[in-house]
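Structure representation.

___
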Amino acid sequence: MQRHISRVANNIIFRLILALIFGLFVGKYLPILIQSIFYAISLTLKESLIFLLPFIIFSCIFSCLLSFKSDVFKFIIILILCICLSNFISTIIGYNVSHITLSNLENFSNINNTTKESLNPYWDFKIPVLISNNVALFSGLIGGLIFSKFRKPRIDFLSNKLRDYVTLFLNKAFIPVLPIFALGFIIKLESDGILSQILSSYLPLVLAIIITQFVYIAILYFIGSGFNIKQFIYFIKNVMPAGIMGFSSMSSMAALPLTIQAAEKNTKKVDLSRTIAPATVNIHLIGDSIAIPMIALVIMSTFGSGFPDFSTFLVFSFYFVLAKFAVAAVPGGGILVMITILETHLGFTPEMGGLITALYILLDPIITSANVLGNGAFTIITSKILSGKTVN
């Protein structure tokens, strides 16, 4: 019993819900000084993350590309292109569904600031950024591709060490303080008089995300089945245990054994399934690619930033898709590396970044389940494309 209680207490979603409840019902009654300190702590944590983000991005992309165990360079390039195309299509779907949703639901744009004076942080902590995220992103991408072609044992060892250090930092240092990170922004939003209005308005968004993700994934399985209903049902039956595991564990990696098992049954290609599924588990993310843009665009509308035009969103999508290779396999990892991209290309403020982080983690079970099910469909389709390529 104590072990069960301890597990629940340590669950990141449980602690984030507590932070949300505390910020919503208690935060505004705290002395202004305390509110200001909480807000300053959140901004300090954000500055620290931004400072370390180039290293995280480079390490994750570099180690990700070197994790492809096949020595066939052409195979790797085709698989990466398939991943990018799939993530890009999912992102564009999120954009278009958001446009339709916002056009028909006016309550998203009716959030008003009822506070005369906005809450200010108690201190202003700034760290100079030494390397831009774009430099880190492209350096990791180019370096990973080069050394996946020209393998060096020392480079592989370095790649594994970089990945281990990043995972250790996120799991042991940053993920545990995520509720505090979100709390300061939650208190800020409630102090400014808009948090309760936001929460009462976002149920349609959650429903839109769920429907969009699983309808699109179902279409992919239908395509993979050759539009054969009986084969479609067979595919879904095989992959559902992996989807349920992803939902309950909030980890695509935890569901990987079941994903591989389902892929082997669905494709009848054991070698390809055992190559594609593990290689894409943390970078082909249909759930993220649909959910993050949808949440982001609704938040922009909520804060009066307006809906971005398609050309602006295309630029964002380019960096968004590339940044998928830098996603760390930790709770909330899908959003952490995206915050600066949202700020740079969609004009997000720190408060908007804190809000999307909280919403993303609350929806993480659903998003992870969609990622797992989407990977199952991706393995079926890409195995047909790649079946003519050699896999060592």
Remarks:
- Residues 2-386 form a domain with the Proton glutamate symport protein fold (CATH 1.10.3860).
- The chain has a mean pLDDT of 81.
- The chain has 18 helices and no strands.
- The first helix runs from residue 2 to 10.
